[in-house]
Amino acid sequence: MASIEIFSDPAHRHQVLELWETIFAYEEAHNRPGLAIDKKLAVNDQLFFVAIVEDEVIGTLLAGYDGHRGWLYSVAVQPSHRNKGIGSALIGHAEQALTARGCLKINLQIGAGNEGVSGFYESLGYAVEPRVSMGKRILLNIPPSSQD
């Protein structure tokens, strides 16, 4: 079974980048994997988790907490390690960390085209809620290029 750890090993950065590029295929500048890692580490909230097997990153989860609600982001598991409880373990670990901080509710979003994963989240107690998700990119804070 994988161990769940707080991301702290710079040697794991490249593995996380590769995993996210494989799983998410983000095209928007604000979602560049290297930028996302750097921004999360700058917050230093200890809510960036990796699943490790034999020093290989096989899963990730970013969590956020604003003092009221928690969020789950970048939940990813290597395709070769899926259906082994890794995603559930990552989510459980993040839920414990958020609960310990006093979190009242945990949210997540599923990107368009990935709706098939909703059954996985429902099995963990998450439910679709009647919401409209809106966003605004702050271009001033998005560098024109990023070294990953």
Topology record:
Layout: E1 3-6, H1 13-23, H2 33-43, E2 48-53, E3 56-65, E4 69-77, H3 86-100, E5 105-108, H4 118-123
Parallel strand pairs: 4-5
Antiparallel strand pairs: 1-2, 2-3, 3-4
What keywords describe this structure?
single chain; 148 residues; alpha+beta; Aminopeptidase; five-stranded mixed beta sheet; 4 helices; 5 strands; 29% helix; globular
How does this structure look, described?
The structure is a single chain. This protein has 148 residues and is of the alpha+beta class. The chain has a single domain, classed as Aminopeptidase, CATH 3.40.630. It is 29% helix and 22% strand. The chain has 4 helices and 5 strands, in the order βααβββαβα. It has a 5-stranded mixed β-sheet with strand order 1-2-3-4-5. A hairpin with a 2-residue loop joins β2 and β3. The model has no long low-confidence stretch (mean pLDDT 93).
Main sheet: which strands, in order across? 1-2-3-4-5
CATH class: Alpha Beta
How many domains would you count in the coordinates?
1
Overall average pLDDT: 93
Alpha carbon gyration radius:
15 Å
Strand count, sense and closure of the main sheet? 5 strands, mixed
What is the CA-CA span between the terminal residues?
Answer: 29 Å
Do you know the CATH architecture? 3-Layer(aba) Sandwich
Relative strand content: 15-25%
Query: Uncertain spans, ≥5 residues at pLDDT below 50?
Result: none
The 3D shape can be described as: globular
Supply the helix-strand structural class: alpha+beta
Could you spell the SSE succession in H and E letters?
A: EHHEEEHEH
User: How many helical elements?
Assistant: 4
Helical amount: 25-40%
- Would you report the number of β strands? 5
**CATH level-four homologous superfamily name:** Gcn5-related N-acetyltransferase (GNAT)
